Amino acid sequence: MRRAFAWIFVLALVAALSGFFLFRVPAVQDALMRTAIGSMAATGHDDLFEADALRAVLCGTASPLPHPNYGKACVAVFAAGRFWVVDTGPGSWNRMGLLRIDPARIGAIFLTHFHSDHIGDLGEFNLNSWATGRKGPLDVYGPPGVERVVAGFNDAYALDKGYRVAHHGADFMPPEVGVLRAIPVPGPAEGLGPSVVLEAEGLRVTAFSVQHDPVTPAYGYRFDYRGRSIVVSGDTAKTEAMVEAAKGSDVLFHEAQANHIVEIIGERAAAAGRPRVTKLMGDIPSYHTSPVEAAEVANAAGVGLVVFYHLTPSPPFRLVETIFTRGVSDVRPEGWILGRDGLMVELPVGSDEIRTDWLD
Ligand SMILES: [Zn+2]
Ligand SMILES: [Zn+2]
């Protein structure tokens, strides 16, 4: 018996050592790289574009507070053969890149408002979709003021754009295509109520006002496609306008701020001699919605599923998720989920079904 163990040990050692030395052979390394990069080089998740369902993927769930893995506010909606992006928070492009979704299939961007955690990656979405073959300027819808934001990004990326054209050629990267084009949506800001901002191949996108004072105007967006619907709140305090806009929709992506945790951050910052952080933590509850309040909005609107995103603070691990959502089950026992980057929601056409999955 002892001899058998000795042989197993010797064989394992030989296998480990030969594996180690084999891995140092360039031909073996190249073969491994071809296998690994082969799957990374192809586009991924092409089935998201199929017309049999309305789908959405969370491309950023964090708030301005840092998170080691997650991007900031971003929801990608898949309909009419393209994807439509609500907000482009810092780090959200990285998430889209990791999912390998074909960037050139972007339809447009919809900005809810112009806080930095919602606009930071605008230039990256433009650059990457241009480089991979987008056919025209990238439209950016938003409240009045979007012209200024878009002009700033176009200006900030102007030198980069010049380098790309010089390097790859104007035929390959036409300069007139590689720009963002602002499309202001004034209606809700002027008190005209929800406004249809885009209709394309069965998809209708509607903008509506939310309550994010002193950030005015601030919008949310509703997507209707072949009888299914998705609503994205953007940043808002609990408001009746949100309930109205989400009435009868299938899925509501709603921001959520755990004020009971924010309060503790403020306390601990004070104890650590960081009064400015304490001040900031004290100010932010006025223009955000707690998870329990978001669940109440979902109940009042009669939505099938509410997905919490734009999480303040974004839970670093599962135990904190439980603390974050304290009290939610008391007001809404089911029909809610805490979003994380990569969550996919699928709404098959011609049914009431709501499916969820995690993409990587
Ligand atoms: Zn905001
Ligand atoms: Zn925000």
What topology emerges from the helices and strands here?
Layout: H1 2-23, H2 26-41, E1 53-60, E2 74-79, E3 82-86, H3 92-99, E4 106-110, H4 116-119, H5 122-131, E5 138-142, H6 146-156, H7 158-168, E6 180-184, E7 195-200, E8 203-209, E9 219-225, E10 228-232, H8 240-246, E11 251-257, H9 259-271, H10 275-283, H11 291-301, E12 305-312, H12 318-324, H13 328-331, E13 336-338, E14 343-348, E15 355-358
Parallel strand pairs: 3-4, 4-5, 5-6, 10-11, 11-12, 12-13
Antiparallel strand pairs: 1-2, 1-14, 2-3, 7-8, 8-9, 9-10, 14-15
Helix pairs in contact: 8-11, 9-10
Care to describe what's here?
- There is one protein chain.
- The radius of gyration is 23 Å and the shape is globular.
- It has helices at residues 2-23, 26-41, 92-99, 116-119, 122-131, 146-156, 158-168, 240-246, 259-271, 275-283, 291-301, 318-324, 328-331; strands at 53-60, 74-79, 82-86, 106-110, 138-142, 180-184, 195-200, 203-209, 219-225, 228-232, 251-257, 305-312, 336-338, 343-348, 355-358.
- The longest helix is centred in the first third of the chain and has 22 residues, at 2-23.
- With 360 residues, the protein is α/β, with parallel strands linked by helices.
- It has a domain at 47-107 and 186-358: 4-Layer Sandwich (Metallo-beta-lactamase, Chain A).
- The strands form two sheets. An eight-stranded mixed β-sheet has the order 6-5-4-3-2-1-14-15. It has a seven-stranded mixed β-sheet with strand order 7-8-9-10-11-12-13.
- The chain has 13 helices and 15 strands.
- Bound molecules: zinc ion (2 copies).
- One zinc ion is lined by residues 63, 73, 115, 117-118, 235, 310.
